Please model this.
Amino acid sequence: MVDVLVVGGGVTGAGVALDAASRGLSVCLVEAHDLAFGTSRWSSKLVHGGLRYLAKGDVGLAYESAAERGTLMTVVAPHLIRPLPQLVPLYGRARGTALIMAGLRAGDALRRAARTPTELLPPPRRVSTTRASALAPGLRRSGLRGGLLSFDGQLVDDARLVVALARTAAGFGARVLTRARALRLHRHGADMRDEVTGVEFGIRARAVVNAAGVWAGELVDSVRLRPSRGTHLVLSADALDIRATAITIPVPGEHNRFALLLPQDDGRLYLGLTDEPVTGPLPDVPDVPASDVDFLLDVGSSVLATPLRRADVLGAYAGLRPLVAGGASRSADLSRHHAVLTSPDGVITVVGGKLTTYRRMAEDAVDATKLTSAPSRTKRVPLVGAADRHVLSTMDTPRRLVFRYGTEAGRVAALGELDPALAVPVADGSMVTAAEVVWAVRHEGALDAADVLDRRTRIGLVPADREAAADNVGGLVARSLSGLAAD
Model:
C-alpha cells in the first residue's frame, strides 16, 4: 500500500511523483515503457515564457509560464536550461513589426514580473541588418531589413529533464517502475502487468493519479481529449549556417503563427512545429506524414539563403499533445491550460498544459488527492545535478557534460579516467561517450539500448547515427547490466 500511485513516466507523472514524495507521501510511479517514452521527449526543447498565450489574450497562462520558466532556470534545473537568443528576421516592408515588438516587450514585462534576472534573459531589441546576418549567417540576405532579437529558455534535452525528475523523486523515497503497464485504474489502486515477464499484479494506493498524457482517456473513460500532432525536422546546422541563434519564422498567410529553427549543441537544428488534429487509435510512437515535412520545408525555406530539400532532412519526430477537448474548431486554437479531473470512482487525472508548466500541474494534482495539508515544496527543490550557474561555470569538466549532468558531470568523466575505453565516443562523429552509456545503466534506469539511444541520449533522432552506434551501445548496456547483477 502506498499513499499515491502515479501512472505515466513523462514530465507530468515524474513531476507528480516528486511533488508528492517531497511532501512526505509514499509514492509509486509506474510507466508501461521507459521514462520520457511518450510526448515528453518529442517537444521543441523549450522552456518558454508564454508569448503565444499572451498573443491570444490569456495573460494568466502567459504569466504562469513565465513564472515557471524563471523557477526552472534559477532553482530547479539551471544545469539543463540555457538562455536562447531568438531572432525574428524582417523582410521587405516587414508588416506587423510593431505588433511583434509590442508582444516581445509584453513578454519581457512578464519576465520582470516573474523576477527572472535580466542577466539571464535580456530584454528584446531591434537589430540592424548587419547584426541579424552576423547572428544567423544562413539567412536570406535579399530584402533583409534587420530583425527583432529576444531571449527564452532552451532545454538541453527534454528527456533528461524527466529522468532528473524521476531520480530526484526516488531520492525522496518514491519507487519508480518502468515496463509496468497499468491495465485498469480504480479508487484503491491499479491492476498491473509486468511488460517483461507478462506477470499480472496489483498495486494498492490511497490515491491514484492518471498522468498518462495523450493516453489518459484509455484509462479513464470520462476523460475527453483532442490530440494534436507536433512535428519537427532534424537538419544540419553547418549546412544551413545557423548555429547559435534560433530563428522565429512567421508562417505565410497565418496570423500569430510561427515556426522555429532551433540550434542544438550537437550541431543539429530542429525545425518545427506543426499543429494538426489526430483521430483514431493513438500509436506509441507517432509517424511523421509527408505533408508535415513539406509544410516545414516550405516555411523554413522562406527565410533561408539555401532553400530546403527533402535530402536535407536527417531525421524527423512527432509528438502528440494531450489537449483538453473544447469548442475550438482547430487544434491550434484549443486551450493550453491544464485540467485536474476526478472520475466518479475517485481516480484523479491531470492533462493538458505544457512542458514548461509541469511543476504547477503536479502541484495541483497532488493537492487534489487531499492526502496532506503540507504545501508543495518543488519551487525550492533543485533536481539532481542542479547548482548555481556560477558554480557550474567554474567546474573543471567538459562543458557538454556539465550541460547534461550538472554537478554529476565529474563523476561521469571519472568513469573514462578510470577506464580509458569508456572515454571514447560510441561511434565516429558522435559526442556521446561510452562512459555516458554506463552511467545511464548504473544511475538512470536504462534497461536496453533503445533507452540509451532514444532517451538518455538523443542519438536516435537521426537514423544514420542510431545505426552507427547501436551495436556498441547494445554491448555496453549488456555488460553494464551484467555488472549490476553480479554486484
